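Minutes, project check-in

Agenda point 3 was the complex the collaborators sent over. CS summarized: two entities, 287 residues total, and the question is how they sit relative to each other. Sequences were read into the notes so everyone works from the same version.
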Amino acid sequence: MTTVAFWVLAVLAVASGVMVLRFDSMARATFSLLTALLCVGGELIVLGLDYLGIVTVLMMTIEMAIMAVFMIMFMMNPAGLMPMTMVHNKRGAAVICALSFVLLLVGILLAPWPRRSGRPPADPTMDLGMSLMGPQMLTMMTLGMALFATIVATVVLSTRRGRYDRFGDDLRAARPEDPVRGGVGR
Amino acid sequence: MSLELFLVLASALFCVGLFGALTQQSIVMLMMGLELMLGGVILAAGAAWHYIAPATADGQVLIVVAITAMAVEMAIGFAVVTALFRSREIDMTDMAAELRE
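CS then shared the predicted structure for the full assembly.
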């Protein structure tokens, strides 16, 4: 059963990944990428990582829904009603990717992989939680800070009004010029 | 199934994503290529956990890091695209070449 699941998900993942780059419709490309990443989540569940598999599935579903909105906002042909290619250096990139794949394949087949040490715990999710709250706490704190910095950076980048708009060119205004009262400028 | 099979699948996803990241002119499509590459990394980390060291949670922690990287990449990427589009009406990588300077 798991072997069948592996092969079905594997073929679907690679086929969807390739179709992401072939579709003319941006909405279809987004949902094709969603399919590929859902298959990755499914493969994680096949490996016994139920929690991380479900997290991947949930996160990618929401992420791709947001991505579809952005695709339709920024692309000139979101519905794919006319053929469109927006690529450069296709041949060079194909050579680089083929060489990379061959190199990875040779490494995978020739590397002396270590034997499996230990057995999976009864509850891998508990194992992950104990690790993140124990020996891997520094990793967890770093990820938390990175996410916090991301929140600040995205708000700063996305906001239309910057400090020069609010305080003037020399930033010496006593009060910021905000359209609505009640903020930091009162 | 074996570790090698999972790693071949992960490599295939990584290389398809690499092709997208190298060829696509649209910044949003470029980000889709990066997501595929990170999907390959996630799969390779899961396979390494299962077939090499299932007793420790290090492989799972690597997956958490990769998933966080995907979220950060997408959030910052869209914010940069929004800022670029707002200031210069740019949504293609070739038109934003001045960012290299």
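Noted in discussion: Chain A touches chain B through 77 residues (CB under 8 Å).
Follow-up: revisit at the next meeting once the mutant set is ready.
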